[in-house]
């Protein structure tokens, strides 16, 4: 079983839609959960990170962690064409290297 | 505040040559990480360094790859005797403190081995 599983997509939505991106992980020792956005041929950009369970909101982005299900989500409200990118989840125990999902490719159509 | 800087952005090497990739962390960051991203693959951790110390090299291939972060100057990822399979995007990240979360990535160096 892979440490982090992420649906590669591609996911195509109309502008203004709510987008839900998800990852599952296998190791209950993971405590930190990150979401990165990567535009084509660019470096990953940290969107947000959360510690343990719960929700965290930043503008149009909301990250959710459900440790009981080992499931993490990123919601994007009022999606824009500029949100079109690959979204990577990453997990860590805090003192072990980040483990990344393979990324979900998102296209927001105007 | 300048972000993480990497150079060169693109590097072409023939098989058997050496590749040197440089990374300057964000101002105030003293923790540097190197990752490799192969086409259609996720980012894979290679090595974690602080100034003059390698903290975690669990993801580094045992041969041909080395990394350093000297007291002065950028961090260097060195690949000796490159092979075609080394062709990938190499990313550097830095963080403000200990811990593997809150890492900020550079734009990457795309290495092509011909």
Salient structural properties:
heterodimer, A: 110 residues, mainly beta, six-stranded mixed sheet, five-stranded antiparallel sheet, 11 strands, 55% strand, globular, B: 114 residues, seven-stranded mixed sheet, four-stranded antiparallel sheet, 0% helix
Q: How many β strands of chain B by DSSP? A: 11
H and E order of chain B: EEEEEEEEEEE
- Alpha carbon gap, first and last residue of chain B: 37 Å
Compute the separation of the termini of chain A in Å: 38 Å
Instruction: Sum up the overall morphology of chain A in one term.
Output: globular
**Poorly predicted spans of chain A:** none
> Largest sheet of chain B, if any?
7 strands, mixed
For the CA atoms, what is the radius of gyration of chain A?
A: 13 Å
Strand content of chain A: over 45%
Topology, number of strands of chain A: 11
> Which value, in Å, is the CA radius of gyration of chain B?
13 Å
Helix content of chain B: under 10%
Low-confidence parts of chain B: none
The chain-level mean pLDDT of chain B equals 94
Description:
The complex is a heterodimer of chains A (110) and B (114). Chain A is mainly beta. In chain A, 0% of the residues lie in helices and 55% in strands. Chain A contains no helices and eleven strands. With 114 residues, chain B is mainly beta. Chain B contains no helices and eleven strands. In chain B, the strands form two sheets. In chain B, strands 2, 4, 5, 6, 9, 10 and 11 form a seven-stranded mixed beta sheet that branches. A four-stranded antiparallel beta sheet of chain B has the order 1-3-8-7, with no helix packed on it. Classes of the chains: A mainly beta (110), B mainly beta (114). Chains A and B meet through strand 4, strand 5, strand 9 and strand 10 of A and strand 5 and strand 10 of B.
